[in-house]
UniProtKB/TrEMBL annotation:
Pfam families attached to this UniProt entry: Amidohydro_1
Protein name: 5-methylthioadenosine/S-adenosylhomocysteine deaminase
Family listed: Belongs to the metallo-dependent hydrolases superfamily. MTA/SAH deaminase family.
Function: Catalyzes the deamination of 5-methylthioadenosine and S-adenosyl-L-homocysteine into 5-methylthioinosine and S-inosyl-L-homocysteine, respectively. Is also able to deaminate adenosine.
Binding positions (substrate): 91, 221, 306
Amidohydrolase-related domain segment(s): 53-411
Length: 424
């Protein structure tokens, strides 16, 4: 039996009451067993968290780990040119080893910045090696190979036959879904409507229902992408996905920057999960997603960093901060307040992946997926009035993450110079 006792922490639970408590967390194997003051247990590992803040691990609902090695493509291109000129040729150049290390590097950055679950879209080939990295690293994941069976602009090496794309996806699902005692899940990843035939999408709809797994795709990100879909299908993205029965509670839709009222209604009524990627939407000049209006309509929105070339890192602190501040000039200071953002990054992400009974909050019975932060900067005047959630959303960085735990295992420990703060 493995056990961890985290002592004397400030705990942001994100339970239904969003309580912030002071006390201990007792973890046995992969689960939180008890939370309370001065718990009497002994444990194989005791962490003194005096002055530290414990949060549920972040859940990122849209990432491409296969793009981590393409960081630094600091080009000034919009989406379709960027894909054609940069991303697709680079994805086509991947081999088994580069996919593995691209994933491992990304996962290392995610863990360093407190992310414990990712929804990951890989490229066409070698996804088996990304799963190997996800499995070995200990992070929680829903991942899948990208599917693209049409499009004149898609490089020859990435162009798939419909049948092969489906078969390879099912083979990967059978190998990896529910792997590592359910820590790894499969998700079908048709890239976007532009690169998928109706036959492929219809089959993905049926397979997702058959295996009860998520479908993870991009939609309504950028003007030229939307135009391509309208030209071909005479419909907007979400309307088209709905017409073939893909718009349902298992669908995770990345971006959704430009939605009309009908698309918003479909998203709300069908329980589609929107993954908002503010950093990527700014970098690729896609636009500012209308998240306040989606939330007003009670649509489901969570957060993701997208690929590393969009924002240079996979840091949820960046995404939270951007998600909050980009709305303020137009919608006012409270339209996307810190608590709303923090909810999207934690329990909201858990709902997006259908694991809200397991992760997303710190509660007895849930999986032990959490991060321990040291928010005690030398340059912040000590005050008991600081709201820790506001502090995290607006001023924390990944340097503040001391420990990241997934499934009851310590995957990252980084005791920084800031631990000196108690001795002066
Ligand atoms: N749409 C289709 N593919 C991609 C991708 O790799 N990144 C982003 N941001 N949008 C896409
Ligand atoms: Fe993306």
């Amino acid at each position: 039996m493995n056990s961890i006792l985290i002592k004397n922490a400030e705990i942001i639970t994100m339970n239904d009451q969003e309580e912030i408590l002071n006390g201990d967390i007792y973890i046995v194997d992969d689960r939180i067993v008890e939370i309370g003051k001065n718990l009497p247990h002994t444990a194989s590992k005791i962490i003194d968290a005096t002055g530290r803040t414990v949060i549920p691990g972040f859940i990122q609902t849209h990432i491409h780990l296969c793009q981590t090695l393409f960081r630094g493509q600091a080009d000034d291109l919009e989406l379709m040119d960027w894909l054609k000129k940069k991303i697709w040729p680079l994805e086509a150049s991947h081999d088994e080893e580069s996919i593995y290390y691209s994933a491992m590097l990304g996962i290392g950055e995610l863990l360093q910045s407190g992310t414990t679950t990712v929804v990951d879209m890989e490229t066409v080939h070698h996804t088996d090696f990304a799963f190997k990295a996800l499995s070995e690293s200990g992070i929680r994941a829903l991942a899948g190979k990208v599917m693209m069976d049409k499009g004149d602009e898609v490089p020859f090496l990435l162009r798939e036959k419909t049948k092969d794309s489906l078969q390879e996806s099912v083979d990967l699902l059978e190998k990896w879904h529910n792997h590592d005692s359910g820590r790894i899940h499969y998700a079908f990843c048709p890239r976007f409507v532009v690169s998928c035939t109706e036959e492929l999408l219809t089959n993905v709809r049926d397979l997702s229902a058959k295996y009860h797994v998520r479908v993870h795709t991009h939609a309504s990100e950028n003007a030229s992408e939307i135009l391509l879909v309208e030209k071909e299908h005479g419909m907007r993205n979400v309307v088209y996905l709905d017409s073939i029965g893909l718009a349902n509670e298992r669908l995770i839709l990345a971006h959704c920057v430009w939605l009309d009222e009908e698309e918003k209604r479909i998203i709300k009524e069908r329980g589609v999960k929107v993954s908002h990627c503010p950093g990527s939407n700014l970098k690729l000049a896609s636009g500012v997603a209308e998240v306040p209006s989606l939330l007003d309509q009670h649509a489901h929105v969570s957060l993701g960093a997208d690929g590393a070339p969009c924002n240079n890192n996979l840091d949820m602190f960046n995404e939270m901060r951007l998600a909050a501040i980009i709305q303020k000039p137009v919608h006012g200071p409270t339209a996307m307040n810190a608590r709303t953002i923090f909810r999207m990054a934690t329990i909201g992400g858990a709902k997006a992946v259908g694991l809200e009974s397991e992760i997303g909050s710190i509660e007895p019975g849930k999986k032990a997926d959490l991060a321990i932060l040291n928010l005690n900067d030398f340059h912040v005047y000590p005050s008991y009035d600081i709201d820790p959630i506001s502090r995290i959303v607006y001023s924390a960085t990944r340097a503040d993450v001391e420990t990241t735990i997934v499934n009851g295992k310590i995957l990252m420990e980084n005791r920084s110079m800031k631990t000196m703060d108690k001795s002066i």
